[in-house]
Task: structure prediction
Amino acid sequence: MFPKDEKLDWLELRKLVSNWIGFVADYMSFIMSIRPDLKDQEAVDDLKKLESDIANATEPFLTYEETLQLQNKIFPLILDWNPDIEDQSRKFYNSLVEMARLTSKSKSLKASYEPFKALKEREEKFELARDVINNIQNSVNVFKPSTIEVYAMFYGLITTTPVVHHSIFTQYKKSLELFELDKKYDADFIFSVSTNFKNREDKIRSDLRDIRNSIAHFNFKLQENEEGHPIVVLNLDSKTKPKQIPLDEFSWIYFNSVFLLQTFLAIQYWHTSFATLRGAFVKKRTCPKCKKGNLFIGNTKEIYETRDEPTLHMFWFCEKCEEKFPFKN
Result:
């Protein structure tokens, strides 16, 4: 995960990682504005301080324990804040962790899997897309959108989906195939908030992509149903019946799709930043036995399969003498 082949100088690395951590901090603030019951300003303040410390760092200054404390404080909030997308977020994160574990054991996979590069290349467009999404979120009546507000959501889907959804989804699907995890993790299910969008084989398709394509190609109508309620009618393709969606349900799908993509982006930014923190900003620790090798963190497979305290499945190991030591948080 740490971008050794990117040839980044220290200044550029500091800027990238501090910006990504700033994104996660801003997203956590946004989450708390929607879910006041999850108020944890301390976690946001910790991230903002870390953002500033990294931007001004002249040498490694963190301990591994400090990064782990942040991880344990931040990730449950990002993953579980929205029950409508919690399952998808968990699966997305677990798959990224598995990819990182497999990458560490294979030189060929390490050369092929470059999440850092993909995020770096699209950062500017992600920022522009986020501005559009935020403006729409702040302007639309979620529960009873007007016709004009529905068209605003259409605009958001058309302009931001190719940048955010397509970029993340396409890379993610290829990565699952690369690691032979595509049978374990269904990319279309993970990138959907509704299970009602299916193909002729009754398999789930990414609803956000289907809705965006229908709107972008003007395969839709805004009309009233038999009861006189406003609905969106989508012609997804020539092989399926037009799908009728009440406006409040369409609003639910739209905003949860936006939340899903923003959450995935926050997960990717923090996951990659966390790996980079350990690779570049954590002070080295010398093996107490051989006095020569550096200590690194290892873990058992159980860490990916349970919600236990992560340190229960972790240990220190020496790169030189290969001795293992208990992890003490």
Summary: The mean pLDDT is 81. The chain is about 55% helix and 10% strand.
